[in-house]
Amino acid sequence: MRLVDAFEQVSLSFSSNKFKTLMSSLGIIIGVIAIVVMLSVGEGLQEGVGKAFGGMSLDVITVFPGGSNFEAGKFVYQKPAEFDEKDVHALENTVGVKTVSPRTGSGMSAMFRDEERSVSITAVTATKEPELSDSIDKGRFLMESDRSSIVIGSDIANKMFKMPLNPGMRISIKNKNNDMGKEFTIVGILKEKEMTSAFGGNSNMEIFTTHQALKDLLDVRNYSYSQILVIVEDQNQIETTSQKVDDSLRRLHKDEAYTVFMMKSILEGIGQVLTMVKYALGGIGAIALIVGGIGIVNVMMLTVTERVKEIGVMKAVGATKENIQMIFMLESGLLGLVSGLIGITTGAGISILISTLGSIPIAVTWTSLAIGLLFGVITTTVAGVYPANKAARLDPVEALRAE
Amino acid sequence: MRTILAMEEVSKSYTLGKLNVPVLHNINLAINEGEFAAIMGPSGSGKSTLMNLIGCLDRPTAGKIMIGDMDTSILPDMELSRIRGKKIGFVFQTFNLISRLTALKNVELPMVYQDISGAQRVKRASELLGMLGLGDRMNHKPAELSGGQRQRVAIARALANEPEILLADEPTGNLDSKTGQEIMQIFNNLHNEGRTILMVTHDQALAQNCDRIIRLKDGRIEDGKYG
What we know:
The complex is a heterodimer of chains A (403) and B (227).
Chain A: H1 3-15, H2 18-54, E1 60-65, E2 70-71, E3 74-75, E4 79-80, H3 85-92, E5 97-112, E6 115-124, H4 130-134, E7 136-139, E8 149-152, H5 154-160, E9 170-175, E10 180-190, E11 206-210, H6 211-218, E12 227-232, H7 238-252, E13 256-262, H8 263-306, H9 308-316, H10 321-357, H11 366-393, H12 396-401
Parallel strand pairs in A: 4-13, 6-11, 8-10
Antiparallel strand pairs in A: 1-12, 1-13, 2-3, 5-6, 5-9, 5-12, 7-10, 8-11, 9-10
Helix pairs in contact in A: 1-10, 2-8, 2-10, 2-11, 3-7, 8-11, 10-11
Chain B: E1 3-16, E2 19-32, E3 36-40, H1 47-54, E4 62-67, E5 70-71, H2 77-86, E6 88-91, H3 103-112, H4 118-131, H5 147-159, E7 165-169, H6 177-192, E8 196-200, H7 204-207, E9 212-217, E10 220-223
Parallel strand pairs in B: 3-8, 3-9, 6-7, 7-8
Antiparallel strand pairs in B: 1-2, 1-4, 4-5, 9-10
Helix pairs in contact in B: 3-4, 3-5, 5-6
């Protein structure tokens, strides 16, 4: 029997049984829709989170004082470490470390004309912040010798005060704790950063200056760094390097608390959870599909029963077991293909609708569509095996006798 | 004359639960090419079983059935299907047409399983239907045809692959006597063209048309001589 002829017979049986065909494929259609929507939601979540954290550099280890120390399950209080030039040196001499840039953050109030605003100032080592110096929009970046210069984020420049700020303008910054105040000249404005993350703070709202300038404002005896950014040479070795960073610091701060933190490990954790969520959602779709598949088995069995006499006639006029098997397998496979196509189209439509109406990030990918279609076809084909074999094995004499 | 079908010591029994029900006992029968034979006998005498065995729809419990030079009692299923398709043409009492297919498609069906191309099938099927006077009813479905027309479609289907033996199981049993006679006329014509026909019938008058009447009783051939 030629394949085209098998196709013709199957299509004739579909068209003569339109309602039954539709009803039997409904389960599969719903299953495929579920798979596509679930995978799209999962994919969208992953993409959304990926975007939110995408701005993070994965080659950075952040070290900061304090943090919780658990020893043998018990919380042990330790004095927070105070980081200074010695630590920077030690870290610079640690294997695997590329650059070390210490930062100190502090809350201040900024005054421009008659407006006063609370701001956060970050002191940096001008020579060690290539990322910042590369993102200057207007003016220039800081120099180590600057003692009264600042570089400001785009939101500070454009949104904080009534009048937009430009390089060359002066604002005064005051430490509210000791009333120390000083006039600063804006030397540069940073480019607007598209994404700011939950962890990094909003760098568009940051004011950067030199350590020397902040020291003058704080007027404290032991100026210490509130954060040290360590950039590693090889991102893939970051776990090892982070261990070495910890070892270097432990020598200098034996009983003090500090935290060595990698964005990468957080991202990996989030990634794992999201993958799990995605597959769990897909799994719900798969269950829908299995239920649909059982429906197909039912309907195909019914079809075989309905057509017992017909199968008898086919055998009497020369159809082999294989012919009958092929016709029924093709029928269920084709049912799966058509249902799958309807399912992925509807699924994609629903996904896009949800994402538009609910402003939930949903990404319909070719992979999700292919998975949906594949599962639809596989389910119906598998579901068709038993009924097709039953049909093929019918005894022609018995079958012809059926009413 | 060539012997087209030979049955040697053929027996057939069914098992009903634990019970063994014998249907045919030691049947010996030879049918020659071009013969028109009637099989008669009361119901339950094994006529249908005999037809099923000859038509390769069933296998004997014992004995040999030779169609041409092949012993069909030992052939695998695949080969039996092939013989049913190529060497046997069935005409049933209840027509057994496929209701969702048109007359033409019904006649094409046996050719489909022999891998004959679509164009050739249509040509052959329309020739046969034309010959049987259904040239204008080819695209009608069985439900739109009268009983006699349906049986003619079934005869056309039986002839589709130029079978060596035509097996007719009470072909006029579901028809009124006038239509029945028309159908019998068709069989007579086919016989005159030289076809080999085996026909189960209850009708003594119809049987008189045949070269030979084989009478079955209780699963044995009572009388099989040439009339």
